Automatic annotation (TrEMBL):
Pro residues bias: start-end ranges: 15-29
Region called Disordered, residue ranges: 1-30
Pfam families per record: BPD_transp_1
Biological processes, Gene Ontology terms: transmembrane transport
Residue ranges the record marks as coiled coil: none
GO cellular component assignments: plasma membrane
Residue ranges annotated for the ABC transmembrane type-1 domain, each copy included: 98-288
Domain of life: Bacteria
Protein name per UniProt: ABC-type glycerol-3-phosphate transport system permease component
Subcellular location: Cell membrane
Transmembrane region(s): 39-61, 102-122, 134-155, 167-189, 210-233, 266-288
Protein family (similarity comment): Belongs to the binding-protein-dependent transport system permease family. MalFG subfamily.
The entry's keywords: Cell membrane, Membrane, Sugar transport, Transmembrane, Transmembrane helix, Transport
Species for this entry: Nocardiopsis composta
């Protein structure tokens, strides 16, 4: 039998083949070229940013300008707090409206989120006759314009003697926030595995403790989103406070109307009040933007 003979004491030579090559170095990155398309895209983005940020910048500058320099074309001016002092002093002080806005917004948030969580859990875990139709009806209420229900609310609260009260505004805001929060939180509860609840029941956890110790922590991102939505909607609501509470329970958006006086619009105080309305929203958006995006995506993707 023929074969390759290997002399004793010597290793077989490796089979002939192409010589090994050194690893290739990555090519250097090519310089980025800025063509006409990139320039147009950048110009469009800058134009949109200017369009969005200019009103905010004008509002902030006007709020700190003295009243006599509001319409001055000069960019240089001495910052002053006289507009803020004007809106907090005198007969037209907005301090009561600021307190009313805080009370109504906080009360709406504290009541709306637990109610929506309970409703969302019921729709997610229990199947009863008409549950799908009822959930659809709750979602469809979001498409009803506020103008269509303003007069019925006005009539009901007038007959009940609840006009110009915090309770009336909170009830109206609950009718706006609870349906949306229910739909939002139902998506979160649907995504929670039922095995976790079964394990909690085996460990002796009751239904109330289950909701508080298990469901609430797991649905925390959605609860956070619902709370932010409820607070901001109540804080910015203008239509219903205009109809239902224009004196004792008036809120900041309604207080802005009082600055449009017969002798003319008080632009400086109006800008200062606008800043007071805007600053809490900017602070909240800055602090919670990461959690808000996480909550929205977790509720949308199962």
């Amino acid at each position: 039998m023929s074969g390759t003979t290997v002399s004793p004491g010597r290793r077989a030579s490796p089979p002939a083949g192409p010589p090994p090559t050194a690893p290739r170095r990555p090519a250097p990155p090519r310089p980025r070229r800025f063509g006409i398309g990139s320039l147009l895209r950048t110009a469009a983005i800058l134009a949109i940013l200017f369009f969005l940020l200019f009103p905010i910048a004008w509002l902030m500058i006007t709020a700190f300008k003295p009243e006599r320099e509001v319409f001055s074309a000069s960019v240089l001016f001495t910052p002053s707090l006289e507009n803020f002092a004007a809106v907090f002093t005198g007969d037209n002080s907005i301090a009561p409206s600021l307190v009313n806005s805080v009370i109504v917004s906080v009360a709406t948030t504290v009541i709306s989120v637990p109610l929506a969580l309970l409703a969302a859990y019921a729709f997610s875990r229990y199947r009863f006759p008409g549950s799908r139709s009822l959930m659809l009806a709750i979602v469809l209420t979001q498409f009803i314009p506020g103008v269509a229900i303003a007069i019925p609310f006005l009539t009901v609260f007038r007959d009940l003697g609840m006009l110009d009260t915090h309770a009336a505004l909170v009830i109206v805001n609950l009718s706006l926030t609870v349906p949306y929060n229910t739909w939002l939180l139902k998506g979160f509860v649907d995504g929670l595995p039922y095995a976790i609840e079964e394990a909690a029941h085996i460990d002796g956890c009751g239904q109330v403790a289950l909701l508080w110790r298990v469901i609430t922590p797991l649905a925390a991102p959605g609860i956070f989103v619902a709370a932010v939505f409820s607070f901001l909607l109540s804080w910015n609501e203008f239509l219903f406070p205009t109809f239902l509470a224009r004196v004792e329970a008036s809120t900041l958006p309604v207080a802005l109307m009082t600055l449009d006086r017969p002798e003319g619009v008080a632009w400086g105080p109006m800008a200062a009040t606008g800043m007071l309305v805007m600053v809490p929203m900017l602070i909240m958006a800055t602090l919670v933007r990461r959690h808000f995006a996480q909550g929205m995506t977790m509720g949308a993707v199962k």
